[in-house]
Amino acid sequence: MTNHTDDSSALLKPRKFPLGTSLVILNQSKVERAPERSEMLVMTISLILTSAPSKTSQNNNIVIIMVDRNVKPDECLLKHIFTATQPKSISVILQGWDKCVFKAEFPKNPQNDYTTCVVRLDSEDEKPRNFAMIATMQRIAATIIPDLVPKTYQVGKAANAQGRMFHFSVVKLVEGDLLEDAWQLMSAGEQNSVVADLVEALQKLHSVRLSDNMAQEVLRKMLREDGEELRPFLETPGVFGGPHTGVLNSGHGLLYSIMEKRKLKKSSFCTMDPVNDSQDVRIQSTFEDMGSMVINNSNISKWAGESVLCHNDLTPRNLILESRPSADGKSNYKLAGIIDWELAGFYPPSYELGLQDTYFCADRHVSFYLLLKEHMKNIVPRSSSQIALVQANALIYESQQRKLSNGTNVSSHIQKRVMENSKLTRDNDPYVGWTRSSQDGPPPDYSSAAFQKLEDDLVGEMLARRKLKAELNSTAQSQ
Fold first, then answer.
1. Domain spanning 75-172: CATH superfamily
2. Which of 136, 145, 290, 390 is the most buried (most CB within 10 A)?
3. Residue-level pLDDT at 145
């Protein structure tokens, strides 16, 4: 039996539930925004729990509590962040239990650097996001491609009315349309032009090394502004990395970081071990047909010296387009901004190239992926060390996805379905990644509604299979 309550203070009240009761907590505001999907989530949770008998009790009660614990930019937070002038209005863009992104608008004031900005809040309870490091990478990038990188006005810490601490960043608002929303409205010529501009910008970023005077100057400035985590980038020769991996002292550190981020809690999909007594590394998939590879230490040791400034998250939701009316009255799109620099840092360029192959579950525009990879492969050096890194990334990631798709992970099933529908296969050239035969015509791109339907259909199929399995188990137990 499933019980529901919408008491937002339910977690604060002492309550007793029968032994064996399963307690499920849902975010109330997300349920209100997407009730149909939330209902499917409740059905999925209920089915999973009821099909797995409790070890402590035969009671299969499920209590679902909806609470509203979303982070909000309260008056206390706003006063901490904006000490001179308070915003006249705010509008929330993204909200969760541990983070919030909102737009703040201010009255016109010559003393202000801006009238509109975007603020991101992240709870200090969560894993630190290294705000100073993210802001530093963004500022270095802004020096190279100022027209495409939003200016960072401020980073720091602030407390809300309850005393909960948050890291925050304040950046310039880039007006325009997300490429994710505009891609299917663009002509083939516009699509090619936007991707060409993006790769040209990327090539400029790849010209920057951590040891460059400009990069070191930005690091010193940010260190003075309370960015202590940046000190190793200034004081330790030969390091590389960024916010999502931390500071890396060696190529081996990058490999282990890749493995650590792909690691699954309860199952193994890949092993990584030294070869005999050497510093060479063997990566072995647990799937026999995927095989293994050995990366020589001579290649691994080159990665630090080959590292350049990378964005590492070039997905359609992080690219902003400016729309200008053309002579025929239609919109003419041009690249206007690159946002979300959380994964940026100094890495071998083939690391960024390989990451593009991992974004399928978040990217419904297959043609964008294919076009971007076609351009990107030409700006990454084809040294043995760079090729080895692309191949290692692919073996680790694809082994993980195979393991996940053998289970109930929705994202991996979405990726698998998109690849099947798009008739994508791995190219023999590791820099190309996934490719499609020209005989199959243009790849299918998904509208937002079509992509949502694909996800819902997959969840429905998984629910049906689980329900059938539960019924068969129940029948077997009753006989």
1. Phosphorylase Kinase; domain 1 (3.30.200.20)
2. 136
3. 98
362 confidence band (pLDDT: 50, 70, 90):
low
Q: Residue type at 48?
A: I
Residue 20 has pLDDT above 80, yes or no: no
Pairing type for strands 152-159 and 425-426 reads unpaired
CA distance 280 to 89: 57
CB 294 within 8 A of CB 282: yes
Give the span between the Cα atoms of 416 and 421, in whole angstroms.
Answer: 9
Q: Which residue has the tokens 């047909």?
A: 289
> For 119-139, what is each residue's pLDDT tens digit?
999 888 755 567 888 989 999
**Integer Cα distance of 293 and 282 in angstroms:** 6
Among 137, 135, 126, 226, residue whose Cα is nearest residue 172: 135
Q: Are strands 116-123 and 331-338 parallel, antiparallel or unpaired?
A: unpaired
**Per-residue pLDDT reduced to its tens digit, 23-34:** 555 554 444 444
- Any idea where the domains of the chain sit in the sequence? 2-68, 75-172, 199-317+345-445
Using a 10 angstrom Cβ sphere, with 0-12 exposed, 13-18 middle and 19 or more buried, the burial of residue 189 is: exposed
Mean pLDDT of 284-307: 97
User: pLDDT tens, 317-336?
Assistant: 999 999 987 777 777 899 99
Q: How many CB atoms neighbour CB 270 within 10 A?
A: 24
CB contact set of 146 (below 8 Å; sequence gap of 6+):
none
